[in-house]
């Protein structure tokens, strides 16, 4: 599964990130700062998921999961794709998972 894949991509950091890049990073960290949103993000299967299926997987109401996905999408952590009447959400890219893995690894080291 995505969580246990040990291959991680490291993105180079510009020596002087512009303010928009920093604001985008702040928005991502803000979206990830909520435990329920983080769990929802990690519950997304590699192929993506509709809101109803994801709500069942995390044991939450569809409206609750939809609101979380809206915030994660606004922070560019997930992307959505319309397939007929359904909207499928998936991780925006491999860097999202790498970011979360690194944060969890760092938190584990602090214990």
Describe the protein.
This protein is of the alpha+beta class and 111 residues long. Helices cover 54% and strands 13% of the residues. The protein contains five helices and three strands, in the order ααβααββα. Strands 1-3-2 form a three-stranded antiparallel sheet. Strand 2 (78-83) and strand 3 form a beta hairpin. It is globular. It starts with 18 loop residues before the first helix and ends with a helix. The model has no long low-confidence stretch (mean pLDDT 87).
Brief summary of the model shown:
The chain has about 110 residues and is of the alpha+beta class. It is about 55% helix and about 15% strand.
Query: What structural class is derived from the secondary structure elements?
Result: alpha+beta
Q: Can you summarize the main beta sheet?
A: 3 strands, antiparallel
**C-alpha end-to-end distance:** 26 Å
Give the overall shape.
globular
Order of helices and strands: HHEHHEEH
Number of helical segments with 4 or more residues: 5
Radius of gyration: 15 Å
- The percent range for helix content is 40-55%
Looking across the biggest beta sheet, what order are the strands in?
Answer: 1-3-2
